[in-house]
Amino acid sequence: MKIIFLYTELAPYFLSCMDALVLNTSADIHIVRKTVNKEAPFEFSFPGKIKVYERNTFNKNDILAFVKAISPDLIYCSGWKDNEYLSVCKIYKNKIPVIVGFDNKWTGSLKQRVGAFLKPVTIRKYFSHCWIPGIPQLEFAKKLGFASENILTGFYSCDYNYFHNLFLQYKESKKNRFPHRLIFVGRYYDFKGIKNLWSAFIAIQNESPNNWELWCLGTGDMEPVIHPSIKHFGFIQPKDIGKFIADTGVFVLPSLFEPWGVAVHEFASAGFPLICSSEVGSSTLFLKENENGFAFRAGDINSLKTALSLIFSLNDDELFSMGEKSSILAKQITPETWTHTLMSVVNG
To answer: At 77, which helix (H) or strand (E)?
Structure first.
């Protein structure tokens, strides 16, 4: 069995799915990838059975010849913006399963409505199936003309075992003394809502000083705010996240735009209570209001302040219990369920 992944920007969590695919199948796996993002310079280590190719080494004729030589049993394509990827998908769509992955939510914008109207010539002629993260993307998938039986869910999975083992490793220490530290992991861009998080946190500290801190991991075009209770650590490789998991207690993702947000799954797996904006797609699966965290209206600083204040008002036992519930919810998607979903298409 031969599988080709025509990818754009790889992320470490995708490789955890590749590990599971290698471990649980005998598939011959080929990945074409684009250049690593300079603002998220992840270091990748691929299993020996996986062959990786750089996208910039292929022109249209090269990539067609490359795929023909492999003669795949399944093709996965990351989105529909790469015309040379599409040229491959069009040729193979009626021969083998050709899956497109996307995390766009239906917004009803003019661009989306036109795309849905023209779906026979814009999308469906290239792909037999689509693979989406979850419920927020379902309406768009149907608008694009994919039948329910050809819509797969659960495409984004964190490295569940890695983060769950961190939960188990630090479980007793957090049960004895829960860390009063929030953690944000993401790029320092306006759409991530990081500026609102800083403002809300500082406002609470000014109004009702407490012993909570905010730790921020990431980099971007936004100047870090300076405050004695806010710490900035820059970009952190996933392999180094363990020490931050050990020393922090509650995960916050205040995004103004976030189709999914795998970091929510990661920190749920690690046993963290969650605070998520209403724009975070993955909160539909991993956040249960008042059970393992709180949601707030995206872009609304007062709503964010309320969510933060609710967390600050809980005692350590209540916070720890919320984290345990997060770890249970995190089991809904794993690299193993991801592999099962993919193989169900190959096997019919």
So the answer is: strand 74-78
